Amino acid sequence: MRNNFRWGRCIGLAVVLVPLVAQAELTVIYDSGNTQPLAPFLEVIEDIEPSQQQPAPTNNQLGAADINMLLPIKSPGLSPGQVQPQAVKRPFTRPFFLIGSDALSRQWLSQYRDRLVEIGAVGMLVQAETTADLEAIAKIGQGLQIMPASGSDIARALGIKHYPVLVSKEGIEQ
Predict the structure, then answer these.
(1) What residues form DSSP beta bridges with 173?
(2) CB-CB contact of 96 with 121 (8 Å)
(3) Hey, which of 38, 107, 155, 162 has its CA 20 to 30 A from 50?
(4) CA distances from 36 to 28, 96, 129, 131 (A)
């Protein structure tokens, strides 16, 4: 009887202590201050019955994959213009460049394309209005990775106001 009491006491103690030990401290990696609970989004998904679900998109309804959904590409605070060379305060592991679809950017990309390919630079197309703009840049930059995206945040962080510009470990240059 005494042996059963000890085991019962150990099990009782384990039942009390295990949840306390198993409860780990929450580590917040990043909090933007705009955290939203996930539950309302899940409720919307759960409320949709299989018969109400959207049909698979056709070629004309590609959603985010539709190139026209990306346009126009704008980067407030950035414009075509001359850039003075300067040192980079934060060295980057891979060189990158910012360009627009304007005449200056097209000429710059055409002139420096081989060098950009050689150094493995990645491009951000920070201004474009039409699919013709995207096609023209893709044709000139053949062999380069160029992603359409706003460059306002990175330009502000680096003190850049104009494009086209190359940012590498050597510095900021045009």
Answers:
(1) 166
(2) yes
(3) 38
(4) 14, 33, 33, 35
